[in-house]
Each structure stands twice: as structure tokens, then as C-alpha cells.
Amino acid sequence: MQKIAIVGAGSMAEAFISGILEKELIDRKNVWVTNNANQERLSQVQERYGIQATYDLNALFDGAEIVMLAMKPKDAGTAIDYIGGHLTESMLIVSVLAGVSMDTIEALAEKPLAIARAMPNTSAAVGKSATAIAVNERVTDHQIETARKLFESVGLTSFVEEDQLDAVTGLSGSGPAYIYYLIEAMENSAAEIGLEKQMAKQLIVQTLIGAAEMVKNSAKPPEQLRREVTSPGGTTEAGVRVLEEHGVKQAFVSCIKAATAQSRRLGAALSSKLTVEKR
To answer: Which residues in the chain belong to E strands, given as ranges?
Structure first.
């Protein structure tokens, strides 16, 4: 990869900057970033990673092979209108704008573009994101490989059709919050049964890591793994019985369906709003 221009300097942009540099995908001198007007934040990112930061659009986009759109989705209309004259069909436009479709990005830019739209999650900050990527018909095989390497710098990647991204948002985009919710419940229970807080946290985290590794590395489905540790009349069976009585499994299914539906609603409303504002 040659040069990347990142529009937006928030936490997601910073996670990618960190990943790109750690994996040595792009030299520091070729990582450029800008934001709307927060000079203090821009300077922090520049100093922390030794990259280039500027409000000069000519300098930002000159020779850029990749342009990452990482501003807040609600600001996409204003931002893309501002930078649109510098975007070209030869660039790979990488969008992490939740709810903003590829068609909307092209409409805002008023030109055809090669776009890879991605849905990472906040675990990108520790290099463990689960990211789904959709591309339009203008993206070349070389650009697909570029997008894959870019997002692999912060975790695992999968390619999907764009209409699947709402489902990805409901499952893995919002997924870390579901796990944090589970950890909250486990910590509360630990306190009630008399375990010291810090020790309980370590036990919970290691239990989750171990279970995840078992699922990742075993050919057995999760249901079978669960049954293998659920002895008749044992402690695990007693605990699982309560989860089933409270409908916890169905609650998770309903949770993910609700998040997916909300993603569709928000995306449709945002794309409509951005398009109207453009007119």
C-alpha cells in the first residue's frame, strides 16, 4: 500500500492507524489524517503515532491510494461534499460509516467511486475486531485484497453483500455490548456469592476467553460442548436450567433481531436525510 488519507480522527480511526502501523502495512509518512475542526485531537493522534495531520486537502489527497471515511455518520453529507472534488474513481474509498450505503456515498460525492463499506466493532481498539466488508462493482481484485489486509490489521474479516451489513451490525457490531452485559451479570452474581471483585473479574474473563477458544478450535458445535460439561444432576445443569426457565437463549435471539431491525431503520432514515440535504 502507498498512501492512505483518513477523514476523521476518532477512536475507530485511531484503532486502524494503530493496526496499520503495527502490521507495517503503510509507512508512517504515508498515513495522513484530518478531522472537522478539533485541532487538539488531531495533534494528539499525530504526536502519538508519528503520522501526518493536515487541514490542507491538496496535501491530504495528493497520491492517496486509499481514502477512509471515518467521521460521524451524521456528518457524512457535509464532509463528503467538502472533500468530494478530491475523490477520484481510481481511489479505494473505505467507509466505516454505520448506516450510510454505498449508493448514498456516491450520490453525495456526485460521481462513481470504488467503495468498500465495512462494519467493524469496538474491539478493533485491541486488534480483535470482527469486521464484515461489502464492496461495489467498481472495486478491483487488487482493491479487495487491500481492504482485506487493512481490516485484518485490527482483527478478523469476512466479505458479505451490502444488504447483510445490518445483520452483521446486530450480531457482531453491537456484539461486544452483549458480552459486557453478560460480564456485568456474572460480576453481580460473584458479589452475591461472596467472591472478591478483582479475583472474580479475572475468573470471568479467563472463562470467556477459554470458552471462546474452545468454540474456535473445536469441530464440535457449541451445543455439544455445552452438553459435555453438563453432567446429569450436577452444578452446571442446575445453572443452565435456570437460564432456560428465564428464556435467556431466546432473549439473545430477540436482542440481535431487534438490533438488526434498528440498524435497518436508522440506516434508511440517515441515507434519506443525507440525500435530502444534498438536494
So the answer is: 4-7, 31-34, 52-53, 66-69, 92-95, 114-119, 129-135, 155-159
